[in-house]
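Hi support team,

I submitted a single chain yesterday and got back a structure, but I'm not sure I'm reading the token output correctly. Could someone confirm the output below corresponds to the sequence I sent? I've pasted both exactly as they appear in my results page.

Thanks,
R.
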Amino acid sequence: MMPLKVRSSPRCLPIATAALAAALLHGCANWSEYVPDMRRLGVYKLDINQGNYVTQDMVDKLKEGQSKQQVRLILGTPLLVSAFRDDRWDYVYEYTRQGRKVEHRNFTVHFANDKLARWEGDELPVSAAQLNRIAADRALAPKAPEPEKGPWDRFIDAIKGKW
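Hi R., thanks for writing in. Yes, this is the structure output for that exact sequence:
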């Protein structure tokens, strides 16, 4: 019996290389972890807080009939006061991250005869004290056990230096 000769063609090499690369890269769960994102290569933009940060606990302190001074002590100086309508104060808050508007809230206070008549606005966040309590509860909560890492994950950790 005569052995069978296999000819290698120069056209097969790029196809075999592409197939091998596809097989190796198929296991990558998150491609963006290994390849830089083009959006990150741009100019850094600051996170910007603008306006009045009004919380729900501040609004809970408002009562009809309070004077403008009392409202100013509770909510702070309004961002917008119209020269033509001094019976309305607007508290506007806007948060911009990396040049994109993330959060925008309006809260309006109306006065009648220099006394607080009513207020209206968007849904407000909880107080800073409540946020601290939520963060403390999360920090003290028991963590779920991490799943067992597979051989590929251990290999990637070894490359990154995370033994």
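A quick pointer for reading it: Residues 12-25 form the longest helix (14 residues). Let us know if anything else looks off.

Best,
Support desk
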